[in-house]
Write a structure and sequence with these properties.
With about 280 residues, this protein is an alpha/beta fold. The chain has 10 helices and 8 strands. It has one domain: Rossmann fold (3-Layer(aba) Sandwich), CATH 3.40.50. The chain is about 30% helix and about 15% strand. The longest helix is centred in the N-terminal third of the chain and has 14 residues. About 40% of the residues are buried.
């Protein structure tokens, strides 16, 4: 007869969540660090792969669902949060994680981002922010600095960059954090907190694109941890963001607003529903 120890299921390890597909990201891309952090988080939380769904839109970072053993959906440009919201409301027992980039999330997907923060459905949104459209040859993105000069945008875009954490806080996100892809263990700790948070959790990850923005390798020397503990006070979080240099890592805000849960309706009799459409 087998011993009790032999029958005990071994703990999950990061490779349990990795598919056989090899990522096609450029060598040195920060997205490798985010993927490693995400798998470490799943293992730490002992999540079963079939109880996790990873939803994405379009872009380099949005390829991530194909590199996992979890359920995944590679959706249309900017629409990942809409898909994820519907999934979480229909299947609340699932751990739903949305991944994407700054272009997908803050440009064409900006409207969905605002309302996902406002609704506060319990899912986690990870934006791998490299301040450039890396998959389509290096155009400026919503978070690109106004003075960033490039061949495709001589002289720079000339427009102030979007401030994602400020926007998330103002729109109602109940968890707001920032990490750095060069510190996957630090990102994993943030993601563990985000996934366990009972509401919409937004995590911006500074994820370098060394192909089009090689200067971002300097982030390694520039990022710094927050000097203060996370706050539950949105007004205090806003004051801190006014003084933020965009390179502070850690949890900025962890609110206590109850997540949105729709009222459970009685089962619908489809035959009755069909009668309403009879001509």
């Amino acid at each position: 007869m087998a011993s009790a120890t032999a029958l005990t299921r071994p703990a999950r390890v990061p490779k349990d969540y990795k598919s056989d597909l090899k990522p096609v990201w450029c060598p040195g891309c920060g997205h490798f660090g985010v993927q490693a952090a995400l798998f470490r988080t799943f293992a730490y939380l002992a999540l079963e792969p079939d109880q996790v769904a990873i939803i994405s839109g379009i872009g380099c970072s949005s390829r991530l669902p194909g590199y996992t053993q979890c359920y995944g959906f590679h959706g249309a440009h900017g629409r990942a949060l809409a898909v994820a919201t519907g999934l979480k409301l229909a299947r609340p027992e699932l751990t739903v994680v949305v991944v994407g980039g700054d272009g997908d999330g803050f440009s064409i997907g900006g409207n969905h981002f605002l309302h996902a923060c406002r609704r506060n459905v319990a899912l986690t949104y990870i934006v791998m922010d490299n301040a450039v459209y890396g998959m389509t040859k290096g155009q400026p993105s919503p978070t690109t600095e106004a003075s960033w000069d490039s061949k495709i945008a001589p002289g720079g875009p000339g427009v102030s960059p979007l401030q994602p954490l400020t926007l998330a806080l103002a729109a109602g996100a109940s968890f707001v954090a920032r990490g750095y892809a060069g510190d996957p263990n630090g990102v994993a700790r943030l993601l563990a907190e985000a996934i366990q948070h009972p509401g919409f959790a937004f995590v911006q990850v500074l994820s370098q694109c060394i192909t089009y923005r090689p200067e971002q390798q300097n982030w390694k020397q520039s990022v710094h941890g927050a000097s203060l503990e996370p706050t539950r006070d949105a007004a205090e979080a806003a004051r801190r963001l006014l003084q933020d240099d965009g390179l502070t890592t850690g949890v900025l805000y962890a609110g206590e607003r109850a997540p949105y849960r729709p009222a459970v309706a009685a089962p619908i009799d489809l035959s009755t529903l069909e009668e309403d459409f009879v001509l």
